[in-house]
Write a structure and sequence with these properties.
Blueprint (H helix, E strand, L loop, with lengths): L2 E7 L6 E12 L2 E9 L5 E10 L4 E8 L2 E7 L3 E6 L6 E6 L3 E4 L2 H11 L8 E9 L4 E17 L6 E10 L5 E7 L2 E5 L2 E6 L8
Parallel strand pairs: 9-10
Antiparallel strand pairs: 1-2, 1-15, 2-3, 3-4, 4-5, 5-6, 6-7, 7-8, 10-11, 11-12, 12-13, 13-14, 14-15
Length: 204
């Protein structure tokens, strides 16, 4: 069960945004990621709880940020309920999309797991619903993912495979690279892995 923490920063000006302390694990029916998010002062500002099935589809999502809450799952596309800070109003949403995304590293692993682009086979498209802090307002976007490289790195145990993906925002044309190994993000815009207490899990 990998456990560690990421540092989060603004991908444009590198302003520190805080840290995300996580643990995650694969299981017979899929994968689960749980994290607590703190600001640069160390105050708790949010959490992520995401469960995928064996095909990478989100079967349970719960996000918290600035007293806002989102609960969602893959149902007729993706369906969610967003609750305001007072708890007096809740709005439901549904979009014909493949999965969810957001600021957490969990969503990069989840999207790669869902799409599984093959090395040298070109890009795979996905429609995603993004929830970003602090208010977790939904936004639908289209991305393409291509697997550029899979590089083995020797370790004391089995070799560690680092995958490099090229991700394109199909609306803005923005392009960036992310690096994953198993169910851990090594680096991505705004995200750096700072500590890892045990090796990443591997997906079968």
């Amino acid at each position: 069960m990998p456990r560690g923490h990421y540092s989060l920063h603004d991908p444009h000006d590198h302003t520190p945004l805080g840290e995300e302390h996580f643990h995650c694990a694969t299981g017979p029916s899929g994968w689960r990621y749980v994290s607590q998010i703190t600001n640069p002062s160390g105050d708790h500002i949010g959490s992520v709880d995401l469960t995928l099935d064996d095909l990478g589809r989100p079967i349970r999502l719960e996000l918290h940020a600035a007293a806002w809450q989102v609960r969602g799952a893959a149902l007729d596309g993706v369906t969610w309920v967003r609750t305001d800070p007072t708890g007096t109003h809740a709005t439901e949403g549904n979009v014909r999309a493949h999965a969810f995304t957001g600021a957490s590293p969990a969503f990069l692993i989840a999207t790669a797991r869902l799409l599984r682009p093959a090395l040298g086979a070109g890009a795979v498209r996905a429609r995603l619903v993004a929830f970003t802090p602090p208010v977790l307002a939904p936004r639908t976007l289209d991305q393409s993912w291509a697997l550029l490289n899979s590089t083995p790195h020797a370790t004391d145990n089995a070799p560690l495979i680092a995958d490099e993906y090229q991700v394109n925002d199909l609306e803005t044309g923005e392009q960036h690279s992310i690096h994953l190994t198993g169910d851990v993000v090594l680096s991505a815009p705004g995200i750096e892995l700072e500590s890892l207490d045990s090796p990443p899990s591997t997906f079968t």
